[in-house]
Amino acid sequence: MPIQFVGTGEGAEDLRPFDAEEFVEGLLDTGN
């Protein structure tokens, strides 16, 4: 099942579209 939204808080208004590339870049960020 593909991920379409990610929760950034506790309410429904805190859902935002999930961007896989942005997520991976955040995981691999080395501060460069």
Alpha-beta classification: alpha+beta
Order of helices and strands: EEH
Strand content: 15-25%
The main sheet comes to: 2 strands, antiparallel
SSE map:
Blueprint: E1 5-7, E2 15-17, H1 20-28
Briefly, what is this?
28% of the residues lie in helices and 19% in strands. It has one helix and two strands.
Structural description of this entry:
The chain is of the alpha+beta class and 32 residues long. It has one helix at 20-28, and strands spanning 5-7, 15-17. Strands 1-2 form a two-stranded antiparallel sheet. The protein is flat.
Name some characteristics of this structure:
32 residues; alpha+beta; 1 helix; 28% helix; 19% strand
